[in-house]
Amino acid sequence: MFSYSKxxxxxxxxxxxxxxxxxxxxxxxxxxxxxxxAATQYLNHxxxxxNRYLRDLLGLIAAEEMGHMEMVAVAINKLGGPPxxxxxxxxxxxxxxxxxxxxxxxxxxxxxxxAEVRARILYNQHFNMTNDPDLKKMIxxxxxxxxxxxxxxxxxxxxxxxxxxSEQFNDLIIxxxxxxxxxEH
Length: 185
Fold this sequence. Notes:
- By secondary structure, the protein is mainly α.
- The protein is built from seven helices and no strands.
- The chain has helices spanning 19-24, 26-30, 35-48, 52-79, 105-129, 133-161, 166-184.
- The model has no long low-confidence stretch (mean pLDDT 95).
C-alpha cells in the first residue's frame, strides 16, 4: 500500500531558527489533532470500511497525512525545535484515545471530517503565530489539504446516505487524484 517518495509534498523552508515555534509545531506531529493521529485513525477506519472505494480513499489520505507529518518534522528540525517524539507541545505523550474506534461507516467518516476540521483550526492558529513567510506558505498548504480531505469525507458520507452506485464512489478517488495534480503544477 505504501511507497516512499523522497520529495516532500511542498517545500519546507524557514527564514530563521525559532525553537519555541518548533515546540509549538509538535502539536501537528504528536498531539491530539496531529498528522499522526489522523493517519492512524484513517488507517484504522480503512481496515473496517466495507466499501472498497472508501477503503482506497482512506488509504490514500492516510498516506498523504504521513507525508504531512514528514513536512512538519522537517520544519521542527529546521526551526531548531526539540527532538521529535510522539508528544504534544506540552510534552504529553500521544495516546490511542485520540483515534476514533467507530465501526459504522457514516460515523467513521464523520469522525474523519471532525479530525480535519480540528486540524485546520490548529493550522490557522499556528499560521497566525508566525511571521515567517515561508512557514506561512507551508502551514497554508497543509491547511488547504485538510479542506480537501474534509470535502471528500463529507461527499463520501452523502454517497452512503443516498445509496449511490459504485461509480460515484470511484469518482472520489478521481477527485482526490485530481487535487494532487494541482499541487504538482
